[in-house]
Fold this sequence. Notes:
- The complex is a heterodimer of chains A (128) and B (230).
- Chain A is mainly α and 128 residues long.
- Chain A contains six helices and no strands.
- In chain A, helix 1 packs across helix 3.
- With 230 residues, chain B is mainly α.
- Chain B has helices spanning 3-30, 36-50, 55-61, 63-67, 69-75, 77-87, 91-115, 120-126, 133-142, 147-171, 177-196, 201-229.
- Chain B has twelve helices and no strands.
- The termini of chain B are far apart.
- Chain B folds into two domains: 3-67, no CATH class; 74-229, no CATH class.
- At the A-B interface, helix 1, helix 2, helix 3, helix 4 and helix 5 of A face helix 1, helix 2, helix 3, helix 4 and helix 5 of B.
Amino acid sequence: xxEYLTGFAILIAFFLFGSFLHKLGxxxxxxxxxxxxxxxAMQVGAVKLKWVERTASLLLRHxxxxxxxxxVGLMEMGPLFSKQAVAITASLLVSVTAVMLTIGLLGHWxxxxxxxxxxxxxxxxxxx
Amino acid sequence: MNTLHLxxxxxxxxxxxxxxxxxGQALHHRWRGIPPIVAASLPIVALLLIFRFPYNxxxxxxxxxxxxxxxxxxxxxxxxxxxxxxxxxxxxMLALIVLIGSVVGMVTAGGTAWLLGAPxxxxxxxxxxxxxxxxxxxxxxxxxxxxQITIALVILAGVLGASFGVPLLRLVGVREDRAVGAAIxxxxxxxxxxxxxxxxxxxxxxxxWAMAASGIFTSLLAALLKLFLH
Lengths: 128, 230
């Protein structure tokens, strides 16, 4: 329990600090600023992975819950959606295909060969 | 309403959201084809419609849940940090490729909507559609888009990439683990990443890393776009 609370406090602190910087005029969303600072803090060893590991994976695992309230708001978007259906659908299909092919092909051509890594790679958490 | 009422009301809204989320998870375990977000949201929509309860009130009541997307975004640094360690030498090149992909994603999404005559708020809502939901929502707000449209697109981008990403990449001869992972993580965020977990550890790791990286790049690029628009 304590572990979750510590991790939670750390994540919230970074989020609030990011939001504060955003309020001061940094044109990047507070959450993303928090993410970048937090990543740096782990890189330089100021924050240990194990302090936050459990809380972060709990939040990421149940992230779907966190956007339920906004998704329900789709109920009021009906008229807008039906008017813009073609533009929205086309934009989605074109863009997903373009990103997939650009990155896939560039990766295929440009990535250097990786020496066989001995460290165990952990599976990525899935957040939507 | 006084404060006590507000707190009670919030508690009810949040409890209802959690209840239907749990049911949605159960349904998803039973029938994989049902996305959990759809299974959780549809019954709430039905409830609000049946009781003629205004959506705005429910949304305000559930504010605390939406707020948690902030700390959850910060938490994305954990898979990024962990997976970044496994990638080592390819990291700079991967970062460059994901950056290019983020530009392509934003330009093609916004550009297509613009060409087809969509109004500006709709165009802006399509721009962040490749990245993970909490970041996409924040970027959408920055660009004065409509968060609900972005959310719908993000979910669909995830489902599309998870279903057709690997076959599409095969079609053009891309099979290398890191290339597949980076492509799917950048185009289809967490939903795509989850679909790779059972295929290959390397693909899933790269995908988790690319998901966070493309979220950061897209936020930075959106800040530039905003400056440009002013």
